[in-house]
Amino acid sequence: MKKILFPTDFSDVSNNAFIYALKLADSINAEIITMHVYQLPQANYINVSEYLHEIYDVTELSNFENYKDEVPLLRSIAEENNLDHIKISHVLILGYLVPEIQKITKEENIDFVVMGTKGATGLKETFLGTVATKVMNDVKAVVLAIPEHCQYQPIKKILFVTQFRPEDLEVLKKVMALAKVFQAHIDCLRVLASPQTDKNDYMEEWKLIVKNHDILLHSIISNDVEGIILDFIDLHKIDMIAMHVYHRNFFEKLFKISLSKKLAFHVNVPILAIHE
């Protein structure tokens, strides 16, 4: 059985993302491990050492009680979506979120990490958005980030952002495997700042590879990469965007405001980050 890790901070954003975790688990026959990571308070005032153990005990108990209260809510979300048959276990960990996600992903052989993200508020990226992009970059499992305003829709159209390079082909295969599960169409999109003059243009090879599959290849010339992608998502009614993790700074850009086009505050479809 496959495993999905679901980091949560008990927020509405996380609870909304949990629906995607449940739907994915149902589609690929996976179990879900929910995970809450907390930190102990930093006590840096004088003569506090004798009280530290009491502070820590109270903090740990408070986190345990909060988590214990939240678990039934997650179960109720599963029941409301007729997905209460999915196996769900829960982990409460003292530590730092991203390293703990990396650790449990390796130890438990996690296949997917599903988490919510708030994107950006004004010109300042929020904490959860920052964490989501760091998890996408640093965690080796496939990461599915769910923006806060996403309302679950069946995944019927997937956009794969690529440069049609050979190193993207293994990632494409993973996207194709997921598309097969969802019975979804794939659009592969390349955005170029100028007409392609590189002799190592692998577009023709890609055409042969995707032949006889429900996949279309697109190449658009524009300097506004983020704007073109957001327009493509809207025009083609895309349900999920997938990309190879070497687009490191691209995640941050997609979660921020596109000032030039005055588009949405963030992408409003799930983002799938895949390592080779």
Explain what you see.
This protein has 276 residues and is of the alpha/beta class. It folds into two domains: 2-147, HUPs (Rossmann fold, 3-Layer(aba) Sandwich), CATH 3.40.50; 157-267, Rossmann fold (3-Layer(aba) Sandwich). It contains eight helices and twelve strands. The strands form two sheets. The chain has a ten-stranded mixed beta sheet, sandwiched between helices. Strands 5-6 form a two-stranded antiparallel ribbon. Helix 3 (97-107) packs parallel to helix 4 (127-138). The protein is elongated, with a radius of gyration of 20 Å. Mean pLDDT is 82; it is low at 257-266. Pfam families: Usp. InterPro entries: Rossmann-like_a/b/a_fold, Universal_stress_UspA, UspA. It comes from Flavobacterium gawalongense.
Main attributes of the structure:
276 residues, alpha/beta, Rossmann fold, 2 domains, two-stranded antiparallel ribbon, 39% helix, elongated, UspA, Universal_stress_UspA, Rossmann-like_a/b/a_fold, Universal stress protein
